[in-house]
Amino acid sequence: MHSRKSGNQSVIFQNPPVILSSFNVVGPKEGDGPLQGSFDEILQDTYDGEKSWEKTEAKMLEKAMRGAAGKVNIPVDSVDYILAGDLLNQIISSNFAARQIGLPFIGLYGACSTMALSMALGAMLIDGGFGSKTLCSASSHHDTAERQYRLPTEQGNQRAMYSQWTVTGAGTVLLSDTGEGPKVTSATIGRVIDFGETDASNMGAAMAPAIADTILNHFQDLGRQPNFYDLIVTGDLGLIGLQLVIDILKRSGLQISNNFSDCGVMIYSPEQDTHAGGSGCGCSAVVLTGHILNRMASGELKKVLLIGSGSLHSPVSALQGESIPAIGHAVSIEK
Questions:
Q1: pLDDT digit string (tens) for 54-84?
Q2: DSSP tag of 91
């Protein structure tokens, strides 16, 4: 049997799955940002008719899943698996959305790396012959994340200038073994790396070493250089984490050119006062399913490397003084 493994951490898909469609839902702040034209649905408020923000997040995720299938007139019940995750305890947003849809469900927790992780695993299922269609999803909500990880927004606590703003949004891609669209051609599964950062507000610094490690292993495993891609984009490092990764890669001998960016930097404009930029599972999910895939559809981009970045701490571990482990997962998307 021919191995799909390449190098230490990467796989190359022999039958690359196609991204048949995508769908996203975002909150009003995201809808006011520079990428507003790339979103399928923009909520008028952060509740969207629900009694709690947690219910709203699950509702957004369900909309994104159904929307991705509906765009290409694929019956939802013809999909083999849902792969999804979010930031909340026991990934309740994903669990409750999957409950409403009723398909076989694989719940994932990779923190903000979950969108890339779901696509990597969804592609593996299809390439391995275990299914023909997967819905790969992730979500976050600013107010649910603040309530769980830091302090409720109603308290009006002052945020550190290096902190990031959790994106209110959900995104889904529908992967298929047949059809037209960009293909997921390879994936690099990250390692958990911890450089001792303990400030839960400084996630960019906590995640930067893990993301740099995944990028270095991706290029080493596949024998590529950064100019192979039209765009290399990280999940949600923000302004500080992005610069740290550039510095780490440079010291490691990998020079990243002007084709390197970050979804957390792209989603908000400076006047929106999000400090270091966006974060959350929904950040890379909505930027990928809107802005990036739209640029691929127009022919502006042909090869994209998405590296999801995840901070793997919990409220309990942070209160106990534990440092913050992090991870990065990468997927190559080629048209």
A1: 999 999 999 999 999 999 999 999 999 999 9
A2: G
Does the residue 312 lie in any domain?
yes
Asked whether residue 199 is assigned to any structural domain, the reply reads yes
Residue 146 and residue 185: Cα distance in Å, rounded?
35
Give, rounded to a whole angstrom, the gap between the first and last alpha carbons of the chain: 27
Can you tell me which residue has the tokens 């490690």?
213
Task: Report whether 254 contacts 315 (CB < 8 A).
Answer: no
Q: What is the pTM of this model?
A: 0.96
State the residue range of the domain holding 195: 183-334
Among all chains, which residue has been given the structure tokens 């192979």? 228
323: Cβ–Cβ under 8 A, 6 or more apart, which residues?
A: 194, 195, 196, 197, 198
Q: 107-125: buried (b, 16+ CB within 10 Å) or exposed (e) per residue?
A: bbbbbbbbbbbbbbbbbbb
Read off the pLDDT band of 161 (50, 70, 90).
Answer: confident
Tens of pLDDT, residues 320-330:
999 999 999 99
Contact indicator for 113, 152 with CB cutoff of 8 Å: no
161 and 197 both lie in a single domain:
no
CATH of the domain at 293: 3.40.47.40
Residue 289 phi/psi, 5-degree rounding, is -70, -10
How many other C-beta atoms are found inside a 10 Å radius of the C-beta of residue 100?
A: 12
